Amino acid sequence: MADHRTPIVPPDADNISAAARRLREGGLVAFATETVYGLGADATNDKAVAAVFQAKDRPRFNPLIVHVKDSNAARAAVRFNPAAETLAEAFWPGALTIVLPRLDDRIGLLVSAGLDTVAVRVPNHPVAQALLAGAGVPVAAPSANKAGCISPTAAGHVVFSLPGPGDGGPDMILDGGPCPVGVESTVIDLSGSSPVLLRPGGVAAEDIEAVIGPLAAPGENEAAKSPGMQERHYAPDLPLRLDAEEPHPGEGFLAFGPGAPEEAMNLSPTGDLEEAAANLFAMMRALDGPPFEAIAVMAVPDRGLGRAINDRLRRAVVPADG
Ligand code: AMP
Ligand code: MG
């Protein structure tokens, strides 16, 4: 029988190493950070990251924050620049997330929703620190709550928001007491020509401006594309045709489920939506160029993670500046 509740456990050495092991095995673990409780997965395992979206029941893929144990681990994950060095020195470990160009190929594309940038943070909470040290991998972790719900700032909130271990939820919740900051991290994009405040949070924008100078709001400058939008979105260069049953000449074919032609790229030959989510961005990229002139995509069922897949496919049909 499925477990309907996730156990809340104290962050002693045994539980930390069990949680770290579950992460390395591709499982999900909820854990305390100084901002809010996170729902963690190995950021190098797209299947595990797909399970995070599934557990949260998110209707769309948005990029997740990758948690690393220190600045050196961050430098291995993303390409630092002088502003990043300054912010890391001033605010890490702490409630600041920095978006930079991706460097570590092991970090999956689903984590960044297909983008060439990755958001990284070094948390200062001892539970998060111990878990990251034990796991030895970067950990993708959005807030440990159902999509559309308030972020959890105590272990008990997580239990009531997410499914239990037998139903796709985390195996355990590492209890670190109430979160001292209690709001999400501040997100700064340093991947463009000037720094952009993507999300206000636990570190005051004024304090950041005091060390690196003025921050632009999203859409205020060239660095922030998609005016009026919090996030940038990956979109393929080639035109996309949805609900295709077979490819036309010149089209790359992105299939789903059994019975698709052998030469197609198949999101999931068995029709598994979690596997399809894990493969989506990498396969779109693989088809997005010569010898193809367009991409044809088979219908994907509009349930569970299929909704997030279809959301992204539909928005990829619309031109990037449309
Ligand atoms: P959450 O993990 O739910 O706390 O939210 C992560 C926040 O970071 C969201 O506001 C995302 O839009 C933002 N974010 C994460 N990665 C990126 C990225 N590569 N580019 C831009 N924004 C990002
Ligand atoms: Mg959240």
Describe this structure in words.
The chain is of the alpha/beta class and 322 residues long. It has 2 domains: 218 residues, DHBP synthase, CATH 3.90.870.10; 77 residues, Rossmann fold. The protein has 9 helices and 14 strands. The chain has a 10-stranded mixed sheet, sandwiched between helices. Strands 11-14-12-13 form a 4-stranded parallel sheet. Helix 1 packs across helix 5 and helix 2 packs across helix 8. 49% of the residues are buried. About 3% of the residues have low confidence.
Outline of this structure?
The chain is 29% helix and 15% strand. With 322 residues, the chain is α/β, with parallel strands linked by helices.
Strand order of the largest sheet: 1-8-2-3-7-4-6-5-9-10
Query: How helix-rich are the residues, as a percent range?
Result: 25-40%
CATH class of the largest domain: Alpha Beta
Number of strands: 14
- Listing every helix as H and every strand as E from the N terminus to the C terminus, the arrangement reads EHEEHEHHEEHEHEEEHEEEHEH
Poorly predicted ranges: 222-230
CATH level-four homologous superfamily name of the largest domain: DHBP synthase
**What percentage of the residues does DSSP assign to strands (E)?**
15-25%
Keyword list:
322 residues; single chain; alpha/beta; binds adenosine monophosphate; 14 strands; four-stranded parallel beta sheet; 2 domains; binds magnesium ion; DHBP synthase
